[in-house]
Amino acid sequence: QVQLVESGGGLVQAGGSLRLSCAASGRTISGYLMGWFRQAPGEEREFVTAITWGGGITNYADSVKGRFTISRDNAKNMVYLQMNNLKPEDTAVYYCAANSAGWGPRSSGKYEYWGQGTQVTVSS
Question: Within a 10 A sphere around the Cβ of 17, how many other Cβ atoms?
Answer without folding.
Answer: 11
